[in-house]
């Protein structure tokens, strides 16, 4: 019996020390100390021993059991240490590696052009006014000398919100709103979003305009020409020629379309300017007496000029962008270039 116990102990100690994982250690515990182990059957047979043998074998069984349990505890500590060491190795963080960079945003090209245009007029002494994008038909049309059913309303593909309420088709209604509230002299610019039923490579149903108007006594077409020439030269280059072509707007009379020398070919003629050498930039004119009457100004006493321009168009020409939709898709690869 003693032999048998010693043999089991030796075998168990060997197995335990050879365990490579906590799982194989647990398997060893079940095999050598579990209910179905040889050691357990020895324990069960203690009853068959003589009273003399019993205490000797009993003591041996106890110390053997204690030895094996101790060996397993020691092994477990070693295995846990090894496991932890391995985990630290695997999960090691190299704090000297460069971090994930936070990409810095850039100012949207439309915002840049809008700011540039505004700054030019702010330096000329203009102030900024704003109006609602959801506008009354009166402010968008009637007050601007565009009566109901007048064919010129078709020039703007209007979105109707409901009866007599529209998404403004231009920033000109801000002229009416400011003049309704204030008296001349006025030098105002009105930036903002406008809406038209129009969509292709050069038209977007939503786009930005910058409106401007100046009202005082004895304002002439010469003031308009001087102001807009100065603006376009600051915007496109000091050396650029500017020309004024007769045009029509219901709210200005006379009206002029203002062109700047082509930014690509400097007037020689190219694809951008369709061979003409000129780029159409803004609409303008002397404020129509009917507009002054609508806001309660005396057209005999006051005169003024107004102008409006599309910011997307200016940005496209300045940065040579051929599709307006790029401004609204907000692909960072596009935006990062500005
Ligand atoms: N509101 C006009 C447009 O959107 C532009 C304009 C403004 C023309 C002011 C003349 C004077 O087409």
Give me some keywords for this one.
338 residues; BirA Bifunctional Protein, domain 2; seven-stranded mixed beta sheet; 10 strands; binds phenylalanine
Molecular structure report:
This protein is α+β, with helices and mostly antiparallel strands and 338 residues long. It folds into two domains: 2-91; 109-335, Bira Bifunctional Protein, Domain 2 (BirA Bifunctional Protein, domain 2, 2-Layer Sandwich), CATH 3.30.930.10. 42% of the residues lie in helices and 20% in strands. It has twelve helices and ten strands. It has helices at residues 2-18, 22-33, 38-44, 53-90, 109-123, 137-140, 173-181, 221-236, 289-294, 311-319, 326-329, 332-335, and strands at 127-128, 134-136, 160-162, 165-167, 186-195, 206-216, 242-249, 252-261, 278-287, 303-310. The strands form two sheets. The chain has a seven-stranded mixed sheet with strand order 1-5-6-10-9-8-7, with helices on both faces. The protein has a three-stranded antiparallel sheet with strand order 2-4-3. Strand 7 and strand 8 form a beta hairpin. The chain is rod-shaped. The N and C termini lie far apart (91 Å). The relative contact order is 0.10. Bound molecules: phenylalanine (PHE). Residues 170, 172, 211, 249, 252, 283-285, 306-308 line the site of phenylalanine. Residues 111-329 form the Aminoacyl-transfer RNA synthetases class-II family profile domain. Tetramer of two alpha and two beta subunits. It comes from candidate division WOR-1 bacterium RIFOXYC2_FULL_41_25.
